Every structure is written in structure tokens, then in C-alpha cells.
Amino acid sequence: MELRVRALESILSEKGYLDPAALDAIVQAYETKIGPHNGARVVAKAWSDPAFRQALLDDASKAVGTLGHVSRVGDHLVAVENTPDRHNMVVCTLCSCYPWEMLGLPPVWYKAAPYRSRAVKDPRGVLADFGVSLPKETEIRVWDSTAETRFLVLPMRPAGTEGWSEEQLAELVTRDSMIGTGFPKTPGAPS
Q1: Whole-model pTM?
Q2: Is residue 191 flagged as an active site residue?
């Protein structure tokens, strides 16, 4: 895949369709300013700061704005919290609306028709496909993103992380846990 990407980049650059410096700037932005590390920091702060957690649940756009994250596409961000009784999962049934600033580029499966249709009809089955097994009594709520409203799942904080710093907590947060198709990493588990 990497060789294909480089070959395509070379051809587009040679033909003058692509400015390598512009591409480097875009990649740099996604690596340092946009991406799942932003969402992970938001989740870690919510896990360690009860006032921020409540602010995030009350108005996620405003709460993440206090951390310097501003949406470039004008979407309204809503945070939904996983609890022992409820598990939240995000889908965009129409296309692939997704909070890029918080989660980075959407995964290929998020944009795929099978995920988009099955997530609504059979969320428990979709979660099983991702290796997420929940007790039968756990309610699964599916949130449908739109061009106007994007969702961020606030996963449950892993046990055994009491006293951890926000930086340590952020290392446990995965992109999939913020979509609801995965869990945070377990403390001490290999990366």
C-alpha cells in the first residue's frame, strides 16, 4: 500500500497536479493538529476533571473549544457517555459525517455501506464483529451523525487508572472507543 501511495504521489507531482509541499503540510496537520490524539486528550480530561466532564456532556462544542479545538466545518459536537447500563455507538447512515478534528480521518469501514446499514439494524452484531461483547441487559444506543451534528463517545474509564495523569489516560483512549466500536486499552496491556 505504501508503495502504491508513493507511486501515485510521484505521478501526480510529475504532472503538476500535486504540490509536494502542500501534501506535506496536510500530512503534518493531521499528525500534529487534527486526529484521534485530540479526542483522546478530551476524553482523558473528562475522566480526570468532573467539571470538564459535565461541561463536555452539556455542550461538547463549547467544552472542546476551551481546550483550543475549533471545528473547521461548522458542525455541532455532542458527547455521549458510556455507562455500565448504556453503550453508545456512532454511525452516519447517509454518508460519512465524522468529527475529523477530534478523531482524524474516518476509518474505511466507517464509510462502508455494510457498517452504515447494519449499525442501525443490528448494533449488537456489528459490535461483536469488532470484538465488543456486552451483557444482554446493556442498552445499545446508536447515534446518527449528520452534516450539522457529530458525536464523540465518552468511553468508561478503565479500572486501575486512579491517580493517573491526563497524559497517561490519553494513551489508553482509542479512536474506536470514541466511536463506540471498541473499548479503551486496558492498563498494562501491550499496545
Answers
A1: 0.84
A2: no
Cell representation of residue 181: 466500536
Respond yes or no: is residue 95 known to be catalytic: yes
pLDDT for the residue numbered 18: 82
Q: Given its phi and psi angles, is residue 131 left (phi above 0), alpha (psi -120 to 50 degrees) or beta?
A: left
Q: Are residues 28 and 119 in the same domain?
A: no
Contact status, residue 118 vs residue 125, Cβ threshold 8 Å = yes
Q: Which of 61, 97, 145, 177 is catalytic?
A: 97
- Give the mean pLDDT per block of 10 residues along the chain (191 residues): 77 86 75 81 98 97 88 77 98 89 89 95 97 97 94 97 97 97 90 60
Q: What CA–CA distance (Å, rounded) separates 52 from 149? A: 20
User: Are 42 and 27 in the same domain?
Assistant: no
